[in-house]
Write a structure and sequence with these properties.
By secondary structure, the chain is of the alpha+beta class. The protein has helices at residues 10-35, 51-57, 86-97, 107-134, 150-157, 191-201, and strands at residues 39-41, 45-50, 64-74, 78-85, 138-140, 144-149, 166-176, 181-190.
Length: 204
């Protein structure tokens, strides 16, 4: 099969997209329970990009976002991001604050904790599903809270990955209908890790 411009075959792209689709499906199931409504998931996209090109690829380019990131270690190496536009993050925070007595509470700090907890649970579910698919232990760092423009965040966090050259980006969008909240998962892997996933998936 002929190679396409991103150096992966059509079959390889389909395999990696399906991995992303399954992982996000389980993760958004958890989000549905947390947020109380049905979640629609859009088909994942996949690109091979340089770190410099990645900030231009982001759907949220130039927008203020809140979210969570975690490093992935062990069998595969990379980073996973869950990003919400600022207005949608505030909807999530407001939902959890609605039934609480916030007198004397630092609502800003509490809001950060809400996004970090919701995002951390979703990322854990994503990576746990990946681990189950690959039948290999896959670990994550403690999730970090993110705030700022998407471009600035990625530039800062991915600086250490410049030596990778091109990275594999599996991007999946979703929408939670009860709050009308949109979010985006970005799984960013080095080429070696993408190849490892392909190798392991072919043995299943």
């Amino acid at each position: 099969m002929a190679k396409i411009s991103n150096s992966l075959t059509a079959e390889e792209i389909d395999i990696l997209k399906e991995v992303g689709n399954i992982c996000v499906g389980n993760s958004t199931g958890i989000l549905s329970q947390l947020l109380g409504g049905k979640v629609e998931v859009h088909l994942p996209g996949l690109e091979m990009l340089t770190v410099e090109e990645l900030s231009l690829y982001l759907k949220e380019r130039g927008l203020m976002v809140y979210g969570v990131s975690a490093e992935i270690t062990s069998q595969v190496e990379g980073t996973i991001f869950l990003l919400f536009p600022e207005k949608d993050s505030l909807k999530i925070i407001e939902k959890f604050l609605a039934n609480l007595d916030t007198k004397g509470v630092n609502t800003i700090q509490f809001g950060i904790s809400i996004i970090k907890e919701v995002g951390g649970i979703a990322i854990f579910s994503y990576v746990n599903t990946l681990s189950s698919l690959l039948k290999k232990l896959t670990l994550t760092s403690v999730p970090n809270f993110l705030s700022g423009t998407a471009d600035e965040l990625l530039t800062m966090i991915l600086r250490e990955y410049e030596h990778w050259g091109k990275v594999c980006v599996i991007h999946t969008s979703f929408k939670e209908l009860s709050l009308n909240v949109e979010g985006n998962f970005y799984l960013i892997l080095n080429k070696q890790s993408a190849d490892e996933i392909l190798k392991m998936m072919r043995t299943i």
